[in-house]
Amino acid sequence: QVQLEDSGGGLVQAGGSLRLSCVASGRTASLLRVAWFRQARGKERERVAGIAWSGGLTSYADPVKGRFTISKDNAKNTMYLQMNNLKPEDTAVYYCAARESVTGQYKYWGQGTQVTVSS
Predict the structure, then answer these.
(1) What is the pLDDT of residues 23-64, one digit of tens each?
(2) At CB < 8 A and 24+ separation, what contacts does 66-72 make?
(3) pLDDT score of 56
(4) Contact yes or no for 20/83 (Cβ under 8 A)
(5) 91: which residues sit within 8 A by CB, 6+ positions away?
(6) Distance (Å, whole) CA 98 – CA 77
(7) Torsion from C-alpha of 42, 87, 106, 20, nearest 10 degrees
(8) What is the rounded CA–CA span in Å between residue 62 and residue 21?
(9) How many whole angstroms separate alpha carbon 76 and alpha carbon 89?
(10) Which of 30, 41, 63, 114 has its CA 20 to 30 A from that of 16?
(11) Helix (H, G, I), strand (E, B) or coil at 62
(12) How do strand 108-109 and strand 10-13 relate by DSSP bridges?
């Protein structure tokens, strides 16, 4: 089993920045890929960014390209999402997730952290 604990959300004005963190514990050696998802009220959950557990092979959803950066500190088993130039439409609950396969469903999820961007 793997446990994920995400944090770092908050209230920020449009144009501001936040950094989310996700600490993984347990059988992390089984992980292959981790990602950040978000879900706004009344909308479906969407994947924001992903990165290989070993680092590298990053990917981003079009709405956040050039503004968000996903990274990983292997020594700390921690994943980050640096969010710059935030927009009101970025308001959502953000979740970190991890999977043990190259493709397929994300099996492990954090509890979520609220990000609110005011205009």
Answers:
(1) 999 999 999 999 999 999 999 999 999 999 988 899 999 999
(2) 70/35, 70/36, 72/34
(3) 85
(4) yes
(5) 40, 115, 116, 117
(6) 12
(7) -130
(8) 21
(9) 31
(10) 41
(11) helix
(12) unpaired
CA-nearest of 72, 119, 116 to 98 is 72
Characterize 73-87 residue by residue with b for buried, 16 or more Cβ atoms within 10 angstroms of its Cβ, and e for exposed: eeeebebbbebeebe
* Burial zone of 62 (CB within 10 Å; 0-12 exposed, 13-18 middle, 19+ buried): exposed
Other C-beta atoms closer than 10 Å to the C-beta of 9 total 17
- The position carrying tokens 């999820």 is 109
**Tokens at 65, concatenated:** 């390209």
The average confidence (pLDDT) of the chain is 96
CA within 13 Å, CB half, 26? 12
Give the Å distances, CA to CA, from 4 to 35, 97, 99: 11, 7, 11
